[in-house]
Design a protein that fits this description.
This protein has 766 residues and is an alpha+beta fold. The chain has three domains: 149 residues, Aldehyde Oxidoreductase, domain 4, CATH 3.30.365.10; 196 residues, Aldehyde Oxidoreductase, domain 3, CATH 3.90.1170.50; 328 residues, Aldehyde oxidase/xanthine dehydrogenase, molybdopterin binding domain (Aldehyde Oxidoreductase, domain 4), CATH 3.30.365.10. The protein has a seven-stranded mixed sheet with strand order 3-5-1-12-9-10-11. A five-stranded mixed sheet has the order 7-15-14-13-8, sandwiched between helices. A four-stranded mixed sheet has the order 18-26-27-28. Helix 10 packs parallel to helix 18 and helix 17 crosses helix 18.
């Protein structure tokens, strides 16, 4: 099909966005609206009292001051998903703290005024007495004996723990193994930095006793159900949640946050619309953060380097509260630790700790990047220990295609995968054979060359069901109503291609409606790379049904059997003839009722999809400064089926750059004594720029998924999963060749690498 699956259609969303015609929450300004600003704790842990709020209330232009007393009847922000088979009690997560705060940025008051400046003046006027308490920063420190308690009823700051595998059998295998490779690595905390910070606008209709909440999200339905039903304790039918354009979400905009309830309450109390927009530092202090694991991992191997068993011990930092999906993130990550390797047995333990920091939750990849980083760093470490090329060690241990479906030692069942094949292709594209010559040339310039591999696999695309409703409008266009939410991925174009596959319409005749709970009855939102594997399958099934309905409608008018009718460029015709009619003419016929012009369906994924691939990074390190430059980057991925190669490349590029950012520069640093966030702005938190990224060579080597009716495997998170270990393995390859340095944690900044080189020079290995 001209506009169907596999076609490189240019995104139809982009024209208004690049012309400045996008409509984001910050652009929305209802008549007479007021501004809300949150008062936040300057302490990581403290008791407090708001002695006097009246002085703030009396400032001209202040309309409302809310404190914890005003929100005492609200429900807490809930933790929606725990660890399967376990009861994970969550600490009380209030909309506004009443007596005690647990991290810098914890919310203590909400001021509504005529302008943000007036609201900030009112916050300064609040008379708050603080009694600082001992705080703990870092998961290892939190679990240490005698550490200050974040919550007095959580002994040892342990939130929860779980395990995978057979510990006794694993220990026996390790005891008999010829070789054991062990590594301790840190996957540092990172901040989700999307283009538009979170914002919300609330309007209250007193006559209907109902709210309209406009906010940037990854799906409005779940937020409506939490904020209305669980926090404000009103029927979700009393709240409409609308999401306009969104400039990136990356998991963090899935969740319900305090400000959404606060603007809703403020709109009701003031009788005027209330708008809150986070500034960038407030985003650092108030939005959930990502990663933050410390892991010790070991591989038991035979004399030839065959993987016999895997042992992993991870400590995951949850922050001060359990956010929406927080406990589930390390769980799904732990399940993917065996990666693409045939490892017969494993023993995996994960302990989660409370700390006096911002809560941690899903961030692009959500546990899968952490798992890939562990196993791929460990495999390279094992290769150095054995004196084997990293690519060769991988080939010896890849799960073979003939073993599919393959059940891992953690219970995941891979349906397809040809791991050696995409490694082969990636090495060819990267000119692996020519690396030694390039390294020798670089050495003459006092530069260290390294090349690194990461062969990853992830589990995704299983969210659902997601209902898709298609309707032929009277003007001949097709409208889709769906509960997924584009945050920049290009859903409007993707779904148009799926509809075109069955109805033959160009993208200009297709319109997607999303992000409105009043128009779309149900919706799962966008997360876990499920919009195409789950939502796209639903769109396809609805399109097939609608096509059948329209053939039945057109059969009489065209005097033909429905089986002989085909769709082409907005018309329906009798195949092989010139007899046709436009879809607009068909929709105008009296028998074309709303029911016959509408079709809906919902696909429930029976199992996850398992996208996989190989990243190869080549780097140069300046010996004098430690500065890293990525000089080559190759990606070969298996996404089952490619819907749109242009947009797929964009998704992979974006995720890869996020991973490169974490590998080289991003780091969330809290002062270990005060608990202050030292990297709370772009003055202190580094982000990747175009100048740091080489041309990315990207190909697919697809094997259709057997768990999805269209063969799709999720693609949105993949780039972020393969990139961190590829870059770090390349850096360590360079450092190992020159100085036998085999341990370095992210971010691999120039000072950190320079220090490692200097230490190696002072203390060369025996």
């Amino acid at each position: 099909m001209k506009f169907g699956i596999g076609q490189a259609i240019v995104r139809k969303e982009d024209d208004p966005l690049i012309r400045g015609a996008g409509r984001y929450v910050a652009d929305i300004a209802p008549s007479g609206f007021l501004h809300g600003v949150v008062a936040r704790s300057p302490h990581a842990h403290a008791r407090f009292r708001i002695v006097d709020a009246e002085r703030a209330r009396c400032i001209p232009g202040v309309a409302l001051v809310l404190t914890g007393e005003d929100t005492a009847d609200f429900g807490p922000l809930p933790c929606m998903v725990g660890v399967p088979g376990q009861d994970v009690p969550a600490p009380h997560y209030p909309v506004l703290a009443r007596d005690e705060v647990h991290h810098v940025g914890d919310a203590v008051a909400f001021v509504v005024a005529q302008s943000p400046d007036i609201a900030r003046d009112a916050i300064e006027a609040l008379d708050i007495v603080w009694e600082p308490l001992p705080a703990v920063i870092g998961a290892e420190a939190a679990l240490a004996a005698g550490a200050p308690l974040v919550w007095p009823d959580r002994p040892g700051n342990l939130s929860f723990q779980f395990s995978f595998g057979d510990a006794a059998r694993t220990e026996r295998v390790f005891a008999e193994a010829v070789h054991v490779a062990s590594l301790k690595i840190v996957n540092q905390r990172v901040v989700t930095n999307y283009l538009d910070t979170r914002a919300a606008v609330a309007e209250y209709d007193a006559d209907k006793d109902s709210y309209t909440l406009t906010l940037g999200s990854q799906g409005p339905h779940a937020i409506r159900d939490v904020i209305a039903g669980r926090v404000l304790k009103v029927s979700p039918d009393k709240m409409r949640v609308v999401t306009p354009d969104v400039g990136g979400g990356f998991g963090t905009k899935l969740f319900s946050y305090r400000e959404y309830a606060l603007v809703a309450m403020a709109a009701k109390r003031t009788g005027r619309p209330v708008k809150w927009v986070a500034d960038r530092t407030e985003h650092f202090l108030g939005d959930t953060q990502g990663r933050d694991n410390i892991t010790t991992a070991s591989l038991a191997m035979s004399a030839r380097g065959k993987f016999l068993a895997l042992k992993v011990d991870t400590i995951a930092d949850m922050g001060a509260y359990l956010s929406t999906y927080a406990p589930y993130i390390p769980y799904i990550g732990a399940a993917m630790l065996p990666g693409v390797y045939d490892i017969p047995v494993c023993a995996i333990r994960v302990r989660a700790a409370y700390t006096n920091t911002v809560p941690v939750d899903a961030y692009r990849g959500a546990g899968r990047p952490e798992a890939s980083y562990v196993i791929e760093r460990l495999v390279d470490h094992a290769a150095r220990k054995l004196g084997v090329e990293p690519a060769e060690l991988r080939r010896r241990n890849f799960i073979r295609p003939s073993a599919m479906p393959y059940e891992t030692a953690t219970g995941k069942v891979y349906d397809t995968g040809e791991f050696a094949a995409h490694l082969d292709r990636a090495q060819t594209l990267a000119d692996w054979a020519g690396f030694k010559k390039r390294a020798a040339a670089a050495k003459k310039q006092s530069r260290l060359r390294g090349i690194g591999i990461a062969s990853y696999i992830e589990a995704c695309g299983a969210n659902g069901p997601e209902t898709a409703t298609l309707k032929l409008e009277r003007d001949g266009t097709i409208t889709l109503l769906i509960g997924t939410q584009s945050t920049g991925q290009g859903h409007d174009t993707s779904y148009a291609q799926l509809v075109a596959e069955h109805l033959g319409i160009p993208p200009t005749m297709f319109r997607m409606v999303q992000g409105d709970t009043a128009r779309i009855r149900t919706g799962g939102g966008t997360g876990g790379s499920s919009s195409i594997p789950a939502g796209g399958a639903s769109v396809t099934m609805a399109a097939r049904t609608l096509a059948d309905n329209l053939r039945e409608l057109a059969a009489d008018a065209l005097e033909a059997s429905p089986r002989d009718l085909e769709f082409d460029n907005g018309r329906i015709r009798v195949a092989g003839t010139d007899r046709s009619m436009s879809l607009a003419d068909l929709a105008a016929r009296p028998e074309a009722t709303d029911e016959k012009r509408t079709a809906a369906d919902a696909f429930r994924p029976p199992a996850p999809t398992f996208p996989n691939g190989t990243h190869i990074a080549e780097v140069e390190i300046d010996e004098a400064t430690g500065a890293v430059k990525i000089v080559g980057y190759v990606i070969v991925d298996d996404f089952g089926v490619t819907l749109n190669p242009l947009m797929l490349a964009g998704q992979v590029h974006g995720g890869t750059v996020q991973g490169i950012g974490q590998a080289l520069m991003e780091d969330t640093i809290y002062d270990p004594d005060s608990g202050q966030l030292l990297t709370a702005s772009f003055m202190d938190y580094a982000m990747p720029r175009a100048s740091a990224i080489p041309d990315l060579v990207f190909e697919t080597r697809n094997v259709p998924c057997k768990n999805n009716p269209l063969g799709f495997k999720g693609a949105g998170e993949a780039g972020a999963i393969g990139s961190c270990p590829a870059v770090m393995n390349a850096i360590l390859d360079a450092l190992w060749r020159a100085y036998r340095i085999d341990r370095l944690d992210m971010p691999a900044t120039a000072p950190r690498i320079w220090a490692a080189i200097e230490e190696a020079r002072r203390s060369p290995p025996a």
